[in-house]
Write a structure and sequence with these properties.
single chain; alpha/beta; Transcription Regulator spoIIAA; elongated
Length: 597
């Protein structure tokens, strides 16, 4: 452990100048960088202040998100406490704040509806295991390959679903148990329209207006806390003066039994560990049912968390470790369900608030978790007075900011048609099907887009002699030079080698691969088919100047031994010289096949 200075703090440690590079562990990267740069009292003071602000923001938001999922509000608080602290200490981004997020509502609500809280917690645990595997396999950088239309389609679709689902609490509808699917829920809202309550609507509108206006008045107190506290106080006073006035609150809507005593609202007790699937046998069939949802949670959680970390890097001019972040996120999602926490990921809005509030290290996020814990233990009786309609308005406000409609319509207006199709497909699947389907199809579309764009980068050119435009190397008469520029992989191999067609007006085929950085198994098969076809037609084949990675593949495949008549040269000049020698050695004249008239 580094020595401490006279103040008791860990000073900055200069990086080692010699010797072997220390191993990189996939956890705790952000905390290690914090201590390496030096951490003292000023940094701690800044972190404590930032953590208090973020904790105040996270308190109502965590409860609102849990309610939107369909579970009691304390489970959102448990998530912010446990996952928020663990991921901060073990993660790879100094400023990331982890907790329940709006993006998960669309995935988690159907799980809670079908499998209950136990299924919800178990699915989150399974997603955590998937995230750890992704981080250990160092797949964190793959977020760069997710096209913008895919993430925008998801985001706008999720925001649409979240906003519409708030109709129940925002209007005070009495729907009974809601069905699983989104369209069926909207139908249930319509059938229950006669139970709408004016008081709940007025509370929701007042909260939303305050959430919009307060940031223009003051930024010292977070708008969610000030708006919800103000509306809750007014509602409590009106209810005391006019007992007939009634709106649904956390205290009237949720009840918890602690040590045989029923408590209105959330329990003011420390979260205690228990098995997520307690009371339900953990069978293979149960795990198989939850696996698609767990995969969707892991994929969406990885996307949202790493996108949040990338944005934090841009604002603070830092660099996060994506693999460390994934492993930490996985650990947080494994541990949180044992304390009643639902699935968690990096929260962009809370991370941005953390940065704006002056955070310096992961300890700010740890402080935010501690603030939520203290508030839950001390303020539970007051939280019971928070109207459900106020939390619904907060969720609509989050969805409005999350949608980023200018980005959505900007892509529709200016992007290529293929991108617009992908955007609308991801949006419609997110809204009208479940997120498991949307995530799966979205990743497939992302892969197809990537393959198409990469294949467009691979070009090919035929040259029979140096007189053709662009010819810089003399091609002897009777030889055909075929140049490929770009990666030769499964998305481009057939296209790149298609230009040869059925041409037979040559004796020696020179395939120049000096600008092919990589080749995969499909590219190798396509290349071998071309080689075999030429050799069967009694042509000689030369591969010129393969780069190191393709050459390694050729050596493993033993191409020269497998195909008699194939030669591999170090560069194009050597290939042309060999072609001239082969043509000189041939005794038969070149016969060019004629087309039938």
């Amino acid at each position: 452990m580094p020595a401490r200075d006279s103040t008791g703090w860990i000073p900055a440690v200069p990086p080692p100048t010699g010797g072997p590079t220390p191993p990189r562990f996939p956890i705790g990267a952000a905390l290690r960088r914090t201590f390496a740069k030096g951490y003292g009292a000023p940094q701690l003071r800044a972190d404590l202040l930032a953590g208090v602000v973020v904790g105040i923001v996270a308190l109502p938001l965590s409860m609102a998100l849990a309610i939107a999922v369909g579970v009691p509000p304390q489970h959102g608080l448990y998530t912010a406490i446990v996952a928020g602290a663990l991921v901060a200490v073990l993660g790879g981004c100094k400023f990331q704040v982890t907790g329940p997020t709006a993006a998960f509502v669309v995935i988690l609500a159907p799980i809670a509806s079908e499998h209950g809280l136990k299924g919800l917690l178990t699915a989150g645990l399974m997603a955590g295991a998937i995230l750890i595997v992704m981080g250990v396999a160092r797949l964190g950088n793959l977020i760069e390959y997710i096209p913008h239309p895919v993430t925008t389609g998801f985001t706008t679709g999720i925001a649409t679903v979240i906003a519409l689902l708030q109709l129940k609490d925002g209007l005070g509808l009495d729907t009974g148990k809601l069905p699983e699917h989104f369209l069926a829920k909207l139908a249930a809202f319509w059938h229950a329209r006669g139970t709408a309550h004016l008081g709940d609507l007025l509370v929701a509108v007042a909260t939303f207006v305050l959430l919009r206006l307060l940031p223009r008045v003051t930024r010292r107190v977070p708008a969610p806390l000030l708006a919800i506290a103000a509306v809750s106080g007014v509602v409590a006073v009106i209810a005391r003066i006019h007992p007939a006035f009634h709106v649904d609150t956390i205290g009237t809507h949720f009840h918890t039994t602690v040590h045989g005593v029923e408590i209105a609202g959330i329990p003011s007790v420390f979260p205690t560990p228990t098995l997520p699937w307690s009371g339900t046998p953990l069978s293979y069939a149960f795990i198989r049912q939850l696996l698609p949802a767990a995969f969707a949670i892991a994929m969406l959680g990885a996307i949202e968390s790493l996108l949040s970390a990338v944005i934090a890097d841009g604002v603070t001019d830092t660099k996060h470790d994506p693999n460390s972040e994934l492993v930490a996120l996985g650990i947080g999602n494994i541990v949180a369900p044992f304390f009643g926490g639902i699935a968690a990921t990096g929260a962009l809005a809370r991370t941005a608030t953390n940065i704006r509030s002056g955070a310096r290290s992961p300890f700010a996020s740890v402080t935010h978790a501690a603030v939520v814990l203290v508030a839950m233990l001390l303020l539970a009786p007051l939280i019971a007075y928070v109207p459900m309609a106020s939390l619904a308005a907060l969720m609509v406000f989050v969805a409005w900011n999350m949608a980023e409609l200018h980005n959505f319509f900007g892509i529709v207006r200016v992007a290529p048609k293929s991108d617009v199709i992908v955007l609308l497909t991801c949006y419609l699947l997110t809204v009208f099907t479940d997120m498991v389907v949307a995530v799966s199809v979205g990743f497939m579309l992302a892969a197809l887009l990537f393959m198409r764009r990469m294949s467009e980068l691979t070009e090919s050119r035929l040259r029979l002699d140096s007189s053709q435009e662009g010819g810089t190397t003399a091609v002897p008469k009777g030889a055909l030079l075929y140049e490929i520029n770009g990666p030769l992989f499964f998305g481009a191999a057939q296209k790149a080698l298609r230009a040869l067609g059925g041409r037979r007006d040559f004796k020696v085929l020179v395939i120049h691969l000096g600008r092919v950085p990589v080749i995969d198994a499909t590219g190798l098969v396509a290349l071998e088919n071309t080689i075999s076809g030429a050799i069967k037609a009694r042509k000689d084949v030369i591969i010129a100047g393969p780069l190191p990675k393709p050459r390694e593949v050729f050596d493993k495949a033993k191409l020269e031994k497998k195909h008699t008549g194939l030669h591999i040269t170090k560069d194009l000049d050597a290939a042309v010289a060999l072609a001239e020698q082969m043509l000189a050695d041939r005794k038969t004249p070149l016969v060019v096949p004629t087309s039938p008239s």
